[in-house]
Amino acid sequence: MIVLCLKLGSARLFVxxxxxxxxxSLLTAQSAxxxxxxxxxxxxxxxxxxxxxxxxxxDGTVMAAGSNITNTWYKLTPDTNGSYVxxxxxxxxxxxxxxxxxxxxxLRDGRVFVAGAEYGTGRATAEIYNPLTDVWTTLTVPTNxxxxxxxxxxGTNKQAFLDSGAVLLADGRVLIExxxxxxxxxxxxxxxxxxxxSSGPTARAGDQDEASWIKLPDESILTVDQGSxxxxxxxxxxxxxxxxxxxxxxxxxxxxxxPISLYDSIGSEIGPGMLLANGTAFLVGANGxxxxxTPSGDxxxxxxxxxxxxxxxxKYPLDNNGNELTNSAxxxxxxxxxxxxxxxxxxxVLYAFSxxxxxxxxxxxxxxx
Length: 369
Fold this sequence. Notes:
Blueprint: E1 13-14, E2 20-25, E3 51-56, E4 62-66, E5 73-77, E6 88-91, E7 103-106, E8 112-115, E9 126-130, E10 135-139, E11 165-168, E12 174-177, E13 187-191, E14 196-200, E15 214-215, E16 221-224, E17 231-235, E18 251-254, E19 273-275, E20 281-284, E21 290-294, E22 303-306, E23 312-315, E24 330-333, E25 341-343, E26 348-353, E27 358-359
Antiparallel strand pairs: 1-27, 2-26, 3-4, 4-5, 5-6, 7-8, 8-9, 9-10, 11-12, 12-13, 13-14, 15-16, 16-17, 17-18, 19-20, 20-21, 21-22, 23-24, 25-26
């Protein structure tokens, strides 16, 4: 059994997960879309355990993290004909720290890098998994990069990665922006070859907590700052080395503002972002909106256009006891807070969406659903 877990907001937020999957064509107008189908795997995960994060490794196997706050991992190995449906599950060695909602990157050499945790013991730690030896190794994060014994500059919370964003750069290093860095908007860079950490450039104008990062064809990283319509890009080391005149790299630059809000007003959440086959970037909002970005191909600003609105879904308000008022159903624009998505080879986008986040009247309790 495979269970897809969507992240919920704080205890005062509620989202009813409709688990509807939509194929949206963004490249060409089509009168009808081919309908796909879901196929249940022959084998179940060990002990029918639900899983959350999945990573495709270079050897074709799939790593799957256990759901909720855990350190467990499983592996799906396709059969001799390459069939995942008839593949087999096995249990991998566990991480040192427990984690839920964290940064993860498959490195160029096939190892897996993880850092942080919104929930669990790994808030300020990082590990690397070697699939050849089935061994997790805890990484030493220098205190001059991130010091979990000290508060960050923006408040009293201790410095930590938490559910930070991360991306694999063209040179094989990993760019990470901790939720609670030493100083606001700081980034850090991990080099898996030298096993070294360094401070990265500071983002220009906004917090990257909850943001979706997209690597563009020119290897720059696009983001929309949390809770705003301000966009910026990271130009990695060695950016367009043959460009005349030379472009300064390893820095964040301002880009064109998004013409429509993509963050919701309750949890400052956003939906998934991905690079499409035609080289544009598609961002799905947590509030029913979407936007499409066309890159310039260099350090000049790109352009945005408003994308299609998400389809409507049914929302059921809660009473003061947390019960759904099924006779008070409201049709509302769909939303995709923290939702999963994938860019398909035919230019379409597969993503999960739900009703928007809204207030739970039961103050201080965990929402049902």
